[in-house]
Design brief:
This protein is an all-alpha fold. Helix content is about 70%, strand content about 0%. The chain has one domain. It is elongated.
């Protein structure tokens, strides 16, 4: 750094910016379209609902644990676990009501997410996103939601 370079003025900033532009060291920013912004909002909403589902399940399991109703036959939220839940009867009427409300909240959240996932598949199939989403889905662990999120959030991959 030369002496005097640390002084900041509009003139020096303009000269530095002009040099960077001349040397093509500046890349343009990506401004998402209105459609991209809407898709981004939808995807963020889906993530919010998935988090709500996780919390609903967690609350339900904690409630059952407080009552001493522990499931020891495998993983939670499997078909076997749900079958166990449907057979479970609680002694107190109020506890049964709490159980029913928690279980209903979980099921409703799952149905919402299922509908939203179908909508995500529709969006990803649109010509605007189809090719990029398909390429990203080739990577292990990347499903439609993740791929569409990358495409909508990043926009133009040539920036990288």
């Amino acid at each position: 750094m030369k002496p005097g370079d640390h002084i900041k003025t509009d003139r020096r900033d303009a000269l530095k910016l002009a040099r960077c532009l001349r040397n093509q060291e500046v890349t343009p920013i990506y401004i998402p379209s209105i459609d991209d912004e809407a898709v981004r909002d939808y995807l963020r909403m889906v993530c919010d609902f998935k988090e709500d589902l996780r919390r609903n399940k967690q609350r339900f399991v904690h409630f059952l644990n407080r009552l001493g109703k522990k499931y020891d036959e495998g993983d939670y939220w499997t078909i076997k676990y749900r079958s166990w839940l449907k057979k479970l009867k609680l002694d107190q009427n109020i506890h049964q009501e709490v159980f029913n409300e928690y279980f209903t909240a979980v099921e409703e959240s799952e149905l919402k997410i299922e509908r939203m996932t179908e909508k995500i598949e529709e969006i990803a199939a649109k010509e605007r996103y189809n090719e990029k989403v398909a390429k990203l889905k080739c990577f292990k662990g990347i499903d439609t939601l993740t791929a569409l999120t990358f495409v909508a959030e990043i926009g133009d991959f040539r920036r990288f």
